[in-house]
Amino acid sequence: MLGLQIPEQSEALRLKIGYMTQKFSLYDDLTVLENLQFIGQIFGLDRALLKQRIAEQMTIYGLTNLQKQRVGGMSGGQKQRLSLACATMHRPELLFLDEPTSAVDPENRRDFWEQLFDLSDQGTTILVTTHYMDEAERCHRLAIMESGEMRADGEPETLMNNMGVNIIEVKASNLRALKERLIACPEVRSAAQLGIRLRVLIYQRVTDPLSGSLTHFPS
């Protein structure tokens, strides 16, 4: 990994890797500043570099006004930003994120992903695990796991093309009954309700899904 052998060079490898856990794992009884100092010391940053990196991370992740705040009293979004700041204190080449947005609101999710794109542009390779497919589509490459086995691997667009389906969305009344009728059609691979509409996956062999046999639902 990263040109190093495991386990012989595991200590050197550790200094090149960042990890953000799904469950918040920093110290609630320490302040934001104290957590950043502690993590920086763990990764062996000298005093001058540590001071510089703390100032940079606080600016990047909007923590400057919170530096004296004890972490236990922070919101989920603030803790998320602090976790990412700590995980990248040492500028890792490879960053592991375990369901990093599972406990935050949509606005914080969006801002978090903007920060990840910035890290990616700076050369960091990021490996994310997520159950949110809209988040997975943001990645350059996907690997889909089921029961511990990799079922698919490739770019999001390639995986969609390999499915051999087109997607349409339907607005109608009585969506539950409509869904049952649609999935009985041989042209339909699946249908899922999204609020007041249905997202329907139709096999690509159906050249015009809005006409022909698909519009004549089974009774």
UniProtKB/TrEMBL annotation:
Residues 4-172 form the ABC transporter domain. Keywords: ATP-binding, Nucleotide-binding. Transmembrane segments: none annotated. It holds the Pfam family ABC_tran. One of its GO terms (molecular function) is ATP binding. InterPro entries: ABC_transporter-like_ATP-bd, ABC_transporter-like_CS, P-loop_NTPase. This is ABC-type multidrug transport system ATPase component.
